[in-house]
Amino acid sequence: MTTPNRPVVRRRIRVTGTVQGVGFRPYVYTLARHLGLVGSVRNDAEGVLVEAQGAPAAVDALVQELQRGGPALARVEEVRADRVPAGDDHAFVIVASDPVGPRSALIAPDTASCAACLAEVGDPHDRRYRYPFTNCTNCGPRFTIVTGVPYDRPATTMAGFALCPQCAREYHDPADRRFHAQPVCCPACGPALTLVDDTGRSIPGEPLKVTAALLRDGRVVAVKGLGGYHLAALAADEVAVATLRGRKHREDKPFAVLAPDLDAASALVEIDEAAASLLTSAARPIVLLPRRAGAAVAEAVAPGNRWLGVLLPYTPLHQLLAQDVAAPLAFTSGNRSDEPIAFQDADALQRLAPLVDAFLTHDRPIHTRTDDSVTRINRGRPILLRRSRGYVPGPIRLPRPARRPVLACGAELKNTFAIARGAHAFVSHHIGDLENYETLRSYRLGIAHLCTLLDVQPTLIACDLHPEYLSTKYALELDRVEVVRVQHHHAHIASCLADNGRTDQVIGVAFDGLGYGCDGTLWGGELLVADLHRAERRGHLETVPLSGGTSAIRQPWRMAVSWLLAAYDGAPPADLAVLARHDGEWPRVAALARHGTGVLPTSSAGRLFDAAAAIVGIRDEIHYEGQAAIEFEQRADPDVTDSYPARLVPGVDLQLCGSDLIRAVADDTRAGVPAPVVAARFHRGLASLTARAVGQLAEATGLRTVALSGGVFQNQLFGDVLLDTLSGNGFEVLTQHQVPSNDGGVSLGQLAVACAGDAD
Which end of the chain is less congested by CB atoms within 10 angstroms, N or C? Predict the structure, then answer.
């Protein structure tokens, strides 16, 4: 109670950001009581609202502490304190949430289990011993279970689990770390595990122990996690992993590896301080790391790959399973190739039954399917390759706020969508490739759900130029909206600008697989002068025919034919091994390239990498996107520092002569130069050529900032050499860290362009 006859002030304090479901109200409550204040704290549709009354110095101290950020999982964006008349409060209390008003509160991402919860799970004397759904205010499910805001238990998939008396006491005790932890539960009142066979019949025994025994025996098990089902097999068991790969029809694309702990992970991959920090972060993503020689992992986990994608357990269920198996597990999304991850129990049983021997499942519903995030470390900083669980729906601040709600529909491959509300961009979880009905359905449901959570109805829609993208068709089918078409590579560069909070004009280097160009051809090796409003094409890789359309993407040898025709004036050397391997087909492909009707030219950098990989004999056919380029990079000798020369052809658009690089690759290959040397010289040659082109554009424009974006910049060797060269030449170089540089970041770029144009 406030002492009489002493100066008293009262402030109404509005806190916005990610402040719900992260222990913010107990934090405020404890702090206010310590400072001798009276008043209240509540959740509402905007965030957290505090009424604090007491001595002026104490109220000021509370405001200052709130501005410092609060609990570990909180992300405070703004603290606004307004003077209001003093009241007659006698204590400081936490009051019920107020859902009235426009919703602007932010939902926290799903968060890995905290140390305190894991300690309880591991304590035989604790009532939550070995309970796989243990959580508290500092950890546990968030985005995957939330159905509405404010973030309270009735607006989650935990609504059907009534609290037992002990959990209720924890939930209502402000001094307890489970105070208002919405998913709080225990074995007496919460979800439960079941183990069933591939027909849905219950398998007797303790589910986790029996599952571990099945895995150790070489079986494949579907495991229901936070955002969907995973398929698991013993990582060291070559037969088990090959069985999983065969059933899933996933020929070569690497599986992740779930390691029980950091020490176990360190036996598989090289882990430095930055990687350890990322592996153990609250997001717990998959981290791509260099594979140790002799690592106890089956070759079939990541065939021919020098890197492994490793993750650590992020729920008590995963922790207990990994401990019981006591060995790393091959871990992959619960789906057939090209389908979205299964997350509903009946659908999972139907779709995954042919793939697995058993299902470890539970009765807590998943509201939003969410794949694992994928990352790597470059120069000591995390780089996102897939932004999903653990990061979504964390907001990204827009460099130009939205005047009205905006939806960006994203690209076709690695699709994400994004929604703008005020100064925030909300980039969705990974949707996948929009190439089938199930993925499109997931896309539509995801948009509807995020619009509900954000309480917005977008009236401005941004989409790609490509008329056949399902995301573009979705945009054009919407009623009573304004549609803005954003060229694919402009979106890439705008994404990099938004990622870095920039609005200025830059030289943009957008290198990727394919994107629909303004001239109706297929771009992919572009130099742009761009800002958020417009982009002008000022240079590009020379164009070659995409003979066979999508067949040329799946079969890199076809791109090799197109590029060899360009490199040797239509008459490539007959003794090239890549041509000999396809002696019955390549003349027809060459004829199609020379004279075929409907064959579009492409300037794609990704297809240039494909061609080089095929010429040196690394990959003639791919089984997942980017496979040839990935394997080509991995073969490159890191000790080779020389590079192939290539010309720049001046003109209205600078032309980067990729054919010079291809001729050098072919000549060295014919001369018997080892593939690792050829690969290194090619990477360095393209980086040098690109840097020279940027230099010429800089002389013409006066610009000294370069933005790098597009899927090709996931190639660490090429990206690092180019970045070092440009930085050494005095350029400021922008790269991406909040969203992927691949097509998973396109929606953010579309959003930034639409918001900037709408603000004018």
Answer: C
